[in-house]
Amino acid sequence: MQRSVDALRAAQRPFIIAHIAPDGDCLGAALGLYWGLRQLGKQPTVACGDAVPGSFAFLPGSEVLVHAAPPNHHDLILAIDASDLARLGTIYDPAVFGERPLVNIDHHVTNQYFGNVNWVEPSAASTSEMIYMLLSALGVAFDPVIATCLLTGIVTDTLGFRTTSTKPELLEIAAALMRAGASLTSIIERAFNTKTLASLRLWGKVLERLQTEGEIIWSENTRAMRQECGAALGDASGAVGFLLGAREAHVSVLFVERDDGDIEVGIRARPGHDISQVALNLGGGGHPQAAGCVLKGDLTQIKARVLDEIRRSLDGHEPT
Ligand SMILES: [Mn+2]
User: Fold this and answer.
1) DSSP 260
2) Cα 87 to middle of ligand 1, angstroms
3) How far is ligand 1, taken at its centre, from the CA of residue 293, in Å?
4) What distances in angstroms separate CA 91 from CA 46, 67, 70, 221, one per listed residue?
5) Ligand 1 centroid vs 19 CA: distance in angstroms?
């Protein structure tokens, strides 16, 4: 963290990158950092390879996010909440990146340490709480805008303070952010309680197709299913965690056929299991209880391969 603080102190025009398929944590952390650095008189830019989902359009600064690789005048690049360079999507430009220091700030246990500075905290529940510590060290005063960004990241990555990563220290940071002016009620309303009807119909289809085998439960979200209900790709996000709510399930999987045909695989596991290695073996990454990967090819074959990998991981698992 100290090396990240030093790099930011020295930088004047930092370029901050949130990962592709952006979630509340990478957006909240990147935008919170953006506003904090502006307060310090710097001229940051914040970028993401994909569009901001409608559910996070309320985040202050989501409208200033750019979607292109960094131009030459930036003196520092920061990758936020990304476990590898592929997570930066089209923003990653080897020609530009090779020329500038890269700071990698993340909490995924599968992080590839691709930066010149790598601050990786697998015990952190969110990257947003790491940005809270970083901005505190830089002497930033937390205002309602910064606090809203960071608390959104914490609330979404902990699914509303429900994950095993939710520790007393995290609740203390959340309390400080509420005192600084963030509204927990409104963040929860906007992040969790504002689904579209098309999204609910898609959830219905996902639940209808669920399958189980032993302690594994899985379902899918295909292009055809989305077309039938007029839903968008991300409209069933959260469904993989919901599947794990089945009493019989220890591991859940959702196979999402993206609009470009690639298959996004989301995996969740109950505490006591660790599926981060499964995701890593499949070319992805994540946390012990929440991980994923993106695979190319036929959905049926991908299902067989992923389920096989999970079976093997469960076979080798000693219950804790
Ligand atoms: Mn995160």
Assistant:
1) T
2) 12
3) 15
4) 11, 7, 7, 27
5) 10
Ligand 1 centroid to Cα of residue 228, in Å, is: 31
Per-residue pLDDT of the chain (320 residues; tens, 9 = 90+): 999 999 999 999 999 999 998 999 999 999 999 999 999 999 999 999 999 988 899 999 999 999 987 777 889 999 999 999 999 999 988 877 888 899 999 999 999 999 999 999 999 999 999 999 999 999 999 999 999 999 999 999 999 999 989 999 999 999 999 999 999 999 999 988 888 999 999 999 999 999 999 999 999 999 999 999 999 988 898 899 999 999 999 999 999 999 999 999 999 999 999 999 999 999 999 999 999 999 999 999 999 999 999 999 998 765 44
Q: How far is the CA of 159 from the centre of ligand 1 (A)?
A: 11
Q: What is the DSSP letter of 108?
A: -
**Ligand 1: distance of its center to the CA of 156 in Å?**
9
CB 235 within 8 A of CB 196: yes
Distance (angstroms) between ligand 1 centre and the Cα of 210 equals 27
Neighbours of 197 (CB within 10 A): 10
Distances (CA, A) of 235 to 1, 196, 226, 258, 307: 35, 8, 9, 12, 24
CA pair distance 123, 111, nearest whole angstrom:
13
251-257 and 263-269 as β-strands: parallel, antiparallel, unpaired?
A: antiparallel
Are 61 and 149 in contact by the 8 Å Cβ rule? The answer is yes
Helices (H) and strands (E) in the chain, counts: 12, 11
CA of 69 to the centre of ligand 1 (A): 22
How far away, in angstroms, is 313 Cα from ligand 1 center? 24
